[in-house]
Amino acid sequence: MKAVYRTSYTDSSGIVLKELPIPEPQSDEIQIKVIATSVSRTDLGVLTGWPWIMRLFVGWPKPRNPIPGTDFTGKVTKVGNLVSDFDEGEMVWGMKDNGIGSHAEYFCTGAFKHLQKLPQGIDPVIAAACIEGAHYAINFINKLDLQPEDRALVIGGTGGIGSAAIQLLKAKRIHVTAVSLGQVDRVKALGADRVINGLEENFLDCGEQFHAILDAVGKSRFTICKPLLYPKGSYLSSELGPNWENIFLALTTPILSNKKVIFPLPQDLKGSLSKMSELLLKKQFNPLIDRVISLAEIQEAYSYVSQGKKIGNVIVKMDPEI
């Protein structure tokens, strides 16, 4: 099989596409033939080991798994003799944010809490764009007590998380203002009520206040955004912030301020997958996809994502004929 391979933490220049034996499942594992996966900021963290805290989960001093990749859709091709929940031929999807080895044509796993059966009727390539960003977006929103017609600001409306958050918020009848660097029409098409083009205007001058600010790219700070929050409003970021300030602010602002930081630790992947299955089957979610590439192009894709240029999701389709 072909697989992305590296032996140490590196940037995109340090990975190679390597021919490896197809792995065989242990008695408590399944073998999965990957149909599609993505290249995301989470994948960059697994590849580079940055921020350093990633290495506590991915491996120290080098990655435990030389094959990166965190999310996937695929088909079960072999089942260990102790596994009773999955059968050969079933479609599955999932994610493990410290790496599952899905940037390969096959991988084996027994981490069943990180995957779920993919319902019939859902395109596995489209589904691959509804895992990482959507899971994190759901874990932004479920930390908030937003009511219909409340107002939310999404910073990073063209990212995987931000583009998902806009649609999920609109499904809850929230008034959404989104900030993007260009691509205004594409963000508007996601359902945003207002789109601020950050290339032309400063969102701090928007003249609005919000019940929640979701910084889906981690480019701003609570101290900067605080004037835009209503009293009792909340700021959430996808990043730790300078000197990990968002963790400390999440502990102190609920006590010391009438505006607070919430640090949205992602939990309950199966709940996120179930939610996305429901929305996809009802045609109520349309992921923003930048491009669909082959595995042979993945080095360039890592470089592209690392530059912060992607619009939505970069998807790797293993078999161009599918």
From TrEMBL:
InterPro entries the record matches: ADH-like_N, ER, GroES-like_sf, NAD(P)-bd_dom_sf
Gene3D superfamilies: Medium-chain alcohol dehydrogenases, catalytic domain, NAD(P)-binding Rossmann-like Domain
Entry's Gene Ontology molecular function annotations: NADPH binding; oxidoreductase activity, acting on NAD(P)H
Protein name in the entry: NADPH:quinone reductase
Superkingdom of source: Bacteria
UniProt keywords, alphabetically: NADP, Oxidoreductase
Domain Enoyl reductase (ER) residues, every copy: 10-316
Record PANTHER family: QUINONE OXIDOREDUCTASE PIG3, QUINONE OXIDOREDUCTASE PIG3-RELATED
